[in-house]
Design a protein that fits this description.
- 2 copies of one chain form a homodimer.
- By secondary structure, chain A is α/β, with parallel strands linked by helices.
- Chain A folds into 2 domains: about 5-125 and about 315-330, ATPase, nucleotide binding domain (Nucleotidyltransferase, domain 5), CATH 3.30.420; about 135-310, ATPase, nucleotide binding domain (Nucleotidyltransferase, domain 5, 2-Layer Sandwich).
- Chain A is built from 11 helices and 12 strands.
- Chain A has helices spanning about 45-60, 100-110, 120-130, 190-195, 195-210, 215-220, 230-235, 240-265, 280-295, 295-300, 315-325, and strands at about 5-15, 15-25, 30-35, 70-75, 80, 85-90, 115-120, 140-145, 150-155, 155-160, 270-275, 305.
- In chain A, the strands form 3 sheets. In chain A, strands 3-2-1-4-7 form a 5-stranded mixed β-sheet. In chain A, strands 10-9-8-11-12 form a 5-stranded mixed β-sheet, sandwiched between helices.
- In chain A, β1 and β2 (about 15-25) form a beta hairpin.
- In chain A, α7 (about 230-235) packs across α8.
- The interface between A and B is large, with 48 and 47 residues.
Chain lengths: ~325, ~325
């Protein structure tokens, strides 16, 4: 290592651990990495102690000098002001409440330009630059998991919107008079295709549907509390009819909202990641079918629906890339 | 006039007439204007004869020299390839079928740079530059009439999408198992709030609803064939309960889709024009109520919902501005 190569630090803050990587700016590969455990960042002070030490560690391991580190990027699972570099609220880090001026604090500690954003925005940057969205001009990036998140790439740049909150596709109304959602709306997409919703729909179908469900019931030993999207997915691939129905329905729900996004955003690609997306082809086929049935023909034909490829490292890549590629930095409008 | 002031020609092609204006580039005001009637442009050849003559006429009237005309913009109510300047299909001009290379043809006739786009895109440019959207960075522009059209301004520029078809909000699914639409989907917004749909919903409500409808029935002399959105609107303002209900319902349907757009696009403003928007405050209040109820709080608080202000001249302004302001010209991606 060494020489004049530039590096960036990517920091992916999760609810229970932080993944930190030293990323080489030539090829955007992770050169060294470490993990910081929950108790070492449960307060902003602890975070500001742990991060410099972890950066020291990965640089030493890779024989990279501090001057070669051109930027630090931080992805956070919550509400952040990316423009001013302030963390507003991270549900899973209650001790961070209040306005944590994370950018300023780290910059004065380390003297390295620091940028923050939410995790879905950074995943979209990672997939755009070195993942499934490579070469795209216009792209929608979606995570399907506990919630449904989205980020929009327009003309090769992250589009954040007028209050930095663009891309919230999870709270689009799917059913006008549907179930109430935490966001205050009813019938949001997330209420039907989030992790918990998939399980709940399956529980209901088990008691109401006449479709065959032996494979599924065997795999959970008849114990409904064992149901997870992963198990329902496994049963579907093993031929369980009820489970297959659940995924077709899930795909059709997601497809209705994706078709709307195809009509409105007319993207080259929709990149889909997150735990629920692990269901793979069965889910993607159902989404694709609905897009083809419902979206306008020309944009529907153009759009590619592809799985995200960077998995658990998307956060490290995205935050590192974001910290040094200025086209992703927002301007005050 | 005369001197060194620059001018642009704005051409708004409608189904039954063309409005053409000479627009001053300093203040974007219409200096002179003329109308071309249907038979004088029913074929591409007729169009290519009429337009140069009309330009000659407005320039002469305003004492503007040909060299002062810096650009020609043309707005068309249908499917156009704005990138290559080709008209693909205009439903109301059947003799234009085939690929009419309108940009090339006019440029070689007149030697003036010529640009084309669809009418909703050009309306959005007009409202952005000298209308209700002035000063916006991110904006959604919507026309409510026979159909429901949309155009998106991102970062002060028209966003056209990867196949130049972005902004099609009229064919977003409102009701999953709703009425079939010409576009191939079912339950599209347009099937519930387009002109014909508003009338149909009113006819149904007249036979099914117990709301008071005397004022409405009197205004159509009990003849349902006289129903139009305008009449239903007049009755609503006169206190007719059934008509008021129709507009509240119309606003809630539009509001569901606007709330989705607020979540995804996070715009500064939504500018709404077209015949149905003439219903004014009663409709706007119902839309606003639904946005507030359904969209995420931060982007909902930011977005302003405002009526378009340029009315029937939006097409002339938009096409003229488009022809000379390069930030609105698309690039090959």
């Amino acid at each position: 290592m060494g020489g004049s190569t530039g590096y960036a630090i990517g920091i992916d803050v999760g609810g229970t651990s932080i993944k930190l990587g030293l990323v080489c700016c030539d090829e955007w590969n992770i050169t060294a990495r470490t993990v910081i455990h929950g108790k070492d960042y449960e307060t902003p002070d602890a975070f500001l102690t742990s991060i410099p030490a972890a950066i020291e560690k990965v640089c030493a391991e890779a024989h990279v000098r501090r001057e070669q580190v051109l930027g630090i990027g931080i992805g956070l699972p919550g509400c952040v002001d990316s423009l001013r570099g302030i963390v507003k609220d991270i549900t899973n880090l209650p001790n961070w409440r209040g306005e944590f001026t994370i950018k300023k604090a780290l910059e004065s500690l380390l003297g390295i330009p620091t940028y923050i954003d939410n995790d879905v925005n950074l995943m979209s940057i990672a997939e755009l630059v070195r993942g499934a969205g490579n070469g795209c001009r216009n792209m929608l990036c979606v995570t399907l998991g506990t919630g449904v998140g989205g980020a929009i790439i327009i003309d090769g740049k992250l589009y954040r919107g007028s209050t930095l909150s663009a891309g919230e596709i999870g709270h689009i109304t799917l059913f006008k008079d549907g179930e109430p959602c935490n966001c205050g709306n009813w019938g949001c997409l997330e209420r039907y295709v989030g992790n918990a919703a998939i399980v709940n729909r399956t529980v209901r179908a088990i008691s109401e549907s006449s479709l065959k469900k032996d494979i599924l019931m065997k795999s959970i030993h008849n114990d409904l509390s064992r149901l997870t999207p992963k198990i329902i997915c496994g049963a579907a691939y093993d031929g369980d009819e009820l489970s297959q129905h659940i995924w077709e329905e899930t795909g059709s729900y997601i497809g209705i909202v994706f078709a709307a996004m195809v009509n409105v955003l007319n993207p080259d690609k929709i990149v889909v990641g997150g735990g629920v997306a692990q269901c793979g082809n069965m889910l993607f086929k159902a989404i694709r079918k609905t897009i083809n049935e419902r979206a306008m023909p020309v944009p529907a034909e153009r759009v590619e629906l592809v799985p995200a490829v960077l998995g658990a490292d998307a956060g490290i890549y995205g935050s590192a890339i974001y910290s040094v590629k200025t086209e992703f930095h927002e301007e005050i409008g």
